[in-house]
């Protein structure tokens, strides 16, 4: 599925989670929290495609990673004391980054499996502990990741759900081609449903 479609599906999953999952609730008088929740959902909905340098998120990831390493190298040369100040945070960052680089080997492999969602959950626990990011937002990222796998599960190419135990791509009994008219109709239908649902239950 294309990036806009993934974000629409992710948004739909986020709306469903807020509506039907009791543990994920946001008070009506806190719209900023709701916006942040959906920002994490939309980010998570693109996250599995980080394994593709030409994808919307993958392109930004690699450019951002190069910028981070370039900045760290400059600090190492001209202001090494700053690296000492943030040594612990840098250790956590590198430890989190290494498994990600191992997972990024080719498109629709590790990052499109159930194992990836499990690792994303573990990462979220670590991020919550070290960086004090509320679990509400991290759960949004996980929901977005799940929505991505669900959307690609509907495509003809499918996804390797139980990778690395099996490289076989699995798909739903009803599938469509990425970028096809069927995908566009599905996306437009979800947009219409989201607008109707929000109008009826929020506004």
Brief characterization of the structure:
The protein has 203 residues and is mostly helical. Helices cover 68% and strands 0% of the residues.
Would you tell me the overall average pLDDT? Answer: 82
- Given as residue ranges, the uncertain stretches (5+ residues, pLDDT < 50) are none
- The H/E string reads HHHHHHHH
The largest β sheet comes out as:
none
What's the quaternary structure here? single chain
Task: Tell me how many strands there are.
Answer: 0
| Rg value | 19 Å
Query: What is the tally of helical segments?
Result: 8
Shape: globular
Proportion of β residues? under 5%
Task: Report the helical percentage.
Answer: 55-70%
Distance between the termini: 30 Å
Tally of domains:
1
Structural class, please?
A: mainly alpha
SSE topology:
Elements: H1 3-20, H2 31-46, H3 56-78, H4 80-85, H5 87-103, H6 114-131, H7 135-153, H8 181-201
Model description:
The protein is an all-alpha fold. It has one domain. It has 8 helices and no strands. Helix 1 (3-20) packs across helix 2, helix 2 (31-46) packs across helix 7 (135-153) and helix 6 (114-131) packs antiparallel against helix 7 (135-153). It is globular and about 55 Å long. The chain starts with a helix and ends with a helix. The mean pLDDT is 82.
Tags for this entry?
203 residues, mainly alpha, globular
